[in-house]
Amino acid sequence: MNYITIEARTYEEAVKKAHQQYGDRLRIHSRRDKQARGFLGLGVSRSCEIICFLADDGTEPEKPAKESRETEEKKELLRFEQEAKTPDPRKPSPAEREIPTVSIEPLAEHAVRILENNDFSQQYIQWMKADVVKQLEKALPAVPDQKDVETTLADRIIGSVDIDYADQTNLPHMFVMLGSENSGKTTTMAKIAALFADKNISLISVSNNPATADQLAKLGNALNRPYKVCADAQEYADAINEFSSSDVIMVDTAAPDDVMSEVFKSVNTSDYAFILTVPATMKYSDIMMLINRYKAYHIKALAVTMLDQTGTIGNIISASRDKFIPLLFFTDGRRIPRDLKRASASVIAENLKGFSIDLSVLLQQ
Hints:
Elements lengths: L3 E5 L2 H12 L3 E11 L8 E10 L14 H15 L10 H4 L7 H13 L4 H16 L8 H14 L5 H5 L4 E5 L6 H11 L5 E6 L3 H14 L3 E4 L2 H10 L5 E6 L4 H8 L6 E8 L4 H10 L7 E5 L8 H10 L3 E5 L8 E3 L2 H6 L8 H6 L1
Helix pairs in contact: 4-5, 4-6, 5-6, 8-9, 10-11, 12-13
C-alpha cells in the first residue's frame, strides 16, 4: 500500500488539503505534530503532518444525494480523527527514535577555562558558568558549539560591567581621588584635568609629604591649572574657598592618615564624588581589601590604572561587580592625557583574552 504525506500549519488545514488533492477515497492513517526551534529558542515554527492512503474502489457505500456537503465533511473529519489514533507504520522503534543526549558540560568547562585565564574570581566564575549554562539550555534541542558558547560568554561578561557614563562626560564639582601610594592617583588626576581642557579646574593635594607637593606643583604648572597643597583642615578649607568659582575642584589624597581623616571630617562631603584608584596589576583579594579600607568614603566609581602592565582584567570586573561599584576610567601609560580611556564595552573586549572569535564584531551587532 502506498502512503501519502501531507503537511500543513494545522491538522484541519492538512485534512482539507488532502481532501482537495485526492478526493473521497483518501483515508488518514496517522498524524504527527511537529515543532522546530532555532538557537536560543528563536524562530519557533509548528506544523501538522498526516499519513494517508487511498482506499480501493467500492470500499465505501455511495453517499445519499440529499446529504449536504457540510454534513459529509464533518463526518469525514470525525472518521479521520479516529483513524489518526492508529499507529504510524513508518514510526521508528523506541531504539530508533531515541535522541542522543546533548551534554553542555564540556562547553561550560570551556567557558570556565576562559574565565580562569582572565583572572576572574571564583565567585564570579561560578555565577557566570551557571548563567551561560542557562542560556545554552534555552537552545536545546539545537546543539550549541564553541562559537556559540564564546559569543554568549563575551556578551554576558560585557553586560555584567557597570560603567559610570554620567561622570565621564560631566565631572562632579568635587572630584576626590583615593588610593594607595604609587597607585597612579596624581598622574590619573592630571590626565583627567587635561582631558577636560575646556573646564575651569583647580587642583588640591591633601598631604604633608613634600614629594607629593612637588609632584602636584609640576603637574599644575604643566597644565596651567591653579593648585594648592594642604597639610591640615584649615588650609584645605581656605583652598576650597579660594577655588569656589571653579567648575571642578580635583583633590588628590595620600593613603588614609590622620591628616586626611581630619580634613574630610571637617567638611560636608555629601556632594563629593570619591573615586578609588585601583592598579590593574592587583590581585582580586587585594582589590577587595583596598575597597574595604576606603568604605567609609562611599566610593562612587573606580579609576583603573596600569592596564598596560597586565594581560588580564577579570580581577577588576569581579571586584566591581561584587562591590557594586561602576568603572569610570582606565589608564594604560604615563602620557597625559593620551593614555587615559573612558571605561567602555570596547575597552573591556580589548582586554579579554582566550577567545577564538573576534569580539570587535560582537560589539558591532
